[in-house]
Design a protein that fits this description.
This protein is mainly α and about 525 residues long. It contains 23 helices and 9 strands. The strands form 4 sheets. The chain has a 3-stranded antiparallel β-sheet with strand order 7-8-9, with no helix packed on it. A hairpin with a 2-residue loop joins strand 8 (about 405-410) and strand 9. It starts with a helix and ends with a helix.
Amino acid sequence: MSKISDMKAPASCEGCFAWGQLPGRFCRGCYTYGQQHSVGRCLGCAREVPVNGRHGYCRLCRAQATWAIKASGRASLLEPYLRQVSCQQLFFANLQRPRNGGPPVGKQGRRALKRAPEPAPPPWPAGWDQLSLFTVHRDYCHFDREHHADLANPFLVRARRAADAFGEVRGWSRWVASDVDRALVIVLSGHVEGESIRYSEIFPALRGRGLSVNRTAEVLDQLGLFTDDRVPAVDRWLDRKLHVVAPGIRCEVESWARTLLDGGPRSEPRARQTAWAYLNEIQPVLLEWSDHYDHLREITREDVIAARDAASSKQRENRVVALRSLFRHAKKNGQIFRNPTLRIRVPRQNRGVIQSLPQTDIDQAVATATTPDIRLIMALAAVHAARPKMIRTMRLDDVDLGNRRITVGGHVRPLDDLTHRVLLDWLDYRRTRWPNTANPHLLITQQTAVELGPAGGFWTTRATRNLTATLERLRIDRQLEEALTHGPDPLHLALVFGIDEKTAIRYADSARRLLETSAESLNAVTASVDDQR
């Protein structure tokens, strides 16, 4: 006999026009989208449907833009593709996220016949112990809540209480709390004393169901039930870069790279980008040396000079700096007898004069600031000369609205009217959008609102990524403008922006050259006018 759902005639969804058997007037995706967003006029198809409050587009237009990104073959922002939507590709309903053989949902799931409980195995005879032959890892992918859920499990009861308290502290929404609760039921229903839950076991099961692995792992780690068996990303990176390097050289280079990343007894950790750049620069040299030598102590001064001369211009300077850092670390730790990079100098490249941004490029960047978060990011870069990393790591404590002060990169600056206004707009939006968040950072996203970490670098620089006036160029232009306005005084620049003295001298030199060029041009024009008279 056919089921009731099989006899239901297919129809078209009123939200995205998807064709198939629907639970009502909308498909599951449009029903959820309508619960999360209010009705408005879509900027793409001009329909009165639920639209995303941030972008102003409906679910159908967003799906079309997502398919366009996938067809392009590269990761990109959604906004440019949303503006390019000119047609709609219709699709069948309920095919976007298959359940991978999971239990039935909706009425089918509620009306499914319950299986009779399996009889308990007979107890072992008294005095016998069953020893384990090998460890069998759990497979959570085939979990069925109806047949496998054990809500009375003491570990599950304790974990659900801990998740409620943890979510209240972090400001989780009811959707996030519900997802974590579902994940805990999957993971802890059959948990027994002494068992440890590994990341590699829960990742495929939770990710296949669209549940957060990291938040679930945080709750389990609080209870002491979690074991992170992932290989650190730095280990995979070093193995990929050094897998063909001679073992004696690889050991010393790996020790140097880890000291750059993590720091040492008498050295501070360097930026991750610095370690990546150093190792990428000298990797070809290490591969060439591995063909002739087995250890760094065999490298001579002539080998370093040959590696230096094989590069050109700026790459030559970067290579010598990286090799000097490597051999200095090896000498300090007693891995080599002498440093072959001593007294090897590379003349610094003559840096050109820093030029101001054209006003058209600045206007184009300002035109992209259409949301409170982008306006604040642009103001911090263009007014306070803040780097992108400084912007995304700023905390709420760095803003003092009462005294009109703001701390940028550890340097206290007065708060101007423009930044004060965009700050108030952003804080009002943040308070309305995420009223329960516990994230201490000034700028947060939908992802970080339920966490404690900063926003990502891709999110911070998304507005000006394809423009000439990027956040970094706006920062440089602001410091150059200060030098042109108040005179090429390095002391003044270092005091205003808290920059290094070498950087301040470079900006002052560029400003001095620009002012001299302008004065010469003005004198030439004046002399030409006098000759004509």
